[in-house]
Design goal:
The chain is built from 13 helices and nine strands. With 312 residues, it is of the alpha/beta class. Bound molecules: phosphoric acid mono(formamide)ester.
Length: 312
């Protein structure tokens, strides 16, 4: 069976743990796995802005022995010049994997259904699983075993990172608290899916509107921009509604004394996170950014191997 990474729960708990183990190995020995040797090409398509995702995939694909092929989304005109299905069929004849950052999860699902090669979600409006797998690697490095740790996600919960934390965090057996204002909480179906996963892993998923209550005693505190891509016209309203959710030094002080702070970047100091936290001793954001490469390499290696095993 062809394997894809379209959302966080595409990896079972055992598979997620395996990918994290592999990521740690590849971080220690970056050139030990060469599943793309040839080189085989990986198509990378970005319909939204990116720094970390495009560079970490390009570097990681090269380290795996492959050729990172940047496909210009606007030139290709996916869904405009030709259908997602036809683009998938063509790309699948050229490359070993397709990595796509786009708007609609349904388009990504269509790509996966027709490509005949693994497809990786490099961010959609609904999920950012490559970010959360890198976050989990970072947390493991700083806190050890993920199972039983409490993570508080503070800010705009109704975005791809809120959804991905619910699914990816509970897959790891973590207790996930989402602290967001009314109207910015992930959908009930996301909590339901997270709680279903948590039954098997010992984790939990909770909405905790009060940020102080959510962060109290947390091992890990996560935030993200209040103005996700596509929400720029709502900036003024969002700044007002999210102001009580700034990850300040005062808020960080109620977390566990050895808590760490994560932010997937780009960050806006003085908005969702205080400069003193982002640039302070509890911040692990630069490790987190580096770990995109190691985690994504492990995802690619896993998908290629699992898809090959399924085919044989
Ligand atoms: N965190 C993240 O996905 O960064 P980019 O948008 O720069 O790729």
């Amino acid at each position: 069976m062809m394997r894809h990474f379209l959302r966080d729960d595409d990896l079972s708990p055992a598979e997620q743990a395996h990918v994290l183990d592999l990521a740690a190995k590849l971080k220690a020995a970056p050139f030990d796995a060469r599943p793309l040797a040839g080189p085989q090409s990986v198509a990378m398509i970005f319909d939204k802005p990116t720094l970390r995702t495009q560079t970490s995939f390009a570097a990681g694909i090269a380290e795996l022995g492959g050729n990172p092929m940047l496909v210009e989304g606007k030139l290709a005109g996916i869904g405009i010049r030709e259908s997602v299905e036809d683009v998938a069929r063509v790309l699948g004849r050229q490359v070993a994997v397709i990595v796509w950052r786009t708007f609609f999860q349904a388009d990504l699902d269509q790509m996966a259904a027709h490509a005949g090669v693994p497809v990786v979600n490099a961010l959609t409006d609904d999920f950012h699983p490559c970010q959360v797998i890198a976050d989990l690697l970072t947390i493991r490095e700083h806190k050890g075993d993920l199972s039983g740790l409490t993570v508080a996600f503070v800010g705009d919960g109704a975005c791809n990172m809120g959804n991905s934390w619910l699914l990816g965090g509970t897959t790891a057996g973590m207790h996930v608290r989402i602290s967001a204002p009314h109207g910015y909480v992930p959908g009930e179906e996301m909590f339901a899916r997270a709680r279903e996963i948590a039954v098997g892993t010992g984790g939990s998923a909770q909405a905790v509107p009060d940020p102080v209550e959510a962060v109290t005693g947390a091992d890990v505190v996560v935030t993200d921009t209040w103005i996700s891509m596509g929400k720029e016209s709502e900036q003024a309203a969002r700044v007002a509604v999210f102001a009580p959710y700034t990850l300040s030094t005062e808020l960080m002080a109620v977390a566990s004394p050895d808590a760490i702070a994560l932010h997937c970047l780009p960050a806006y100091r003085g908005m969702e996170i205080a400069a003193e936290v982002l640039d302070g001793p509890q911040s692990v954001v630069w490790d987190e950014a580096e770990n995109r490469r190691h985690a994504q390499k492990a995802v690619l290696a896993f998908l290629l191997e699992a898809s090959h095993e399924g085919a044989s």
